[in-house]
Amino acid sequence: MRDCTIVLAIGESKNYYFAMDSDIAIRLQNTTKVFYPPGAQPVTAVDALTLDIRRGEIFGLIGPNGAGKTTTLRMISTVLKPTSGNVEVAGFNTVSHSDDVRRILGFLSGNTGLYKNLKAREMVEFFGRLYGMPENDLHERTKRLFEMLEMTEYAETLCDALSSGTKQKVNIARTIIHDPPILVFDEPTVGLDVMVARTLTDFIIGLRDVGKTVIFSTHIMREAERLCDRIGIIHKGELLALGTLTELLQKTETNNLEDAFFSLAETPKLQV
Hints:
Structural class: alpha/beta
Largest sheet: 6 strands, mixed
Strand content: 15-25%
Oligomer: single chain
Number of strands: 10
Distance between the termini: 36 Å
Shape: globular
Number of helices: 10
Strand order of the largest sheet: 6-7-8-3-9-10
Radius of gyration: 18 Å
Low-confidence stretches: 1-19
């Protein structure tokens, strides 16, 4: 898939986003999330995270499993409330203005399931109706998204019968059906074969090329090297470093992102 031209803007989400004077799409200020499991010690999943994500960039949040990536993305997406600190999306506080955030944001979680008794097209259109999209716009956008994601032939197939790669494409389509200006992808290529993963990463590049803000988590370093304008390295809930790939390699005097990560993880101190 090489032609990643994104389809028409739909609804009011663009009005929210482009009315902003700031170049910052997402802002976290001293954001902490602590979990309190019954009968166990509290667990700090994210520790005083301060981070700005710019409009129109692909921002990668990388780190090993359990680093705090998913918790961070869930706080940005209003799924979780921070224990302390502040999270803003397009100037909207994710706690006090959560409905506004959801209108302008698409969130793809790593464990999002599909309704097995719906067809692929029905699944995507169902989410479009949740966002209040007009039927004519919804049908046209669904058709074009299926073309862009190379899954038109599966539009009338039950979700339960789809391959894992096609299921993930359906998840991508339902995430962006309402044309949100800000997109959050939590490890979108995990478990996919190399061809499907490449199709999805090409698609993410296309989203950036038409001005979307994309933040995604991954533990695949080469994926981050290829896609990201800037990268945040997170480990044990702390932000270890932030910058472009070139900046991170220069700071750590390494030749690739994997080596840079291990260099930073040995001395967990913020380096921006």
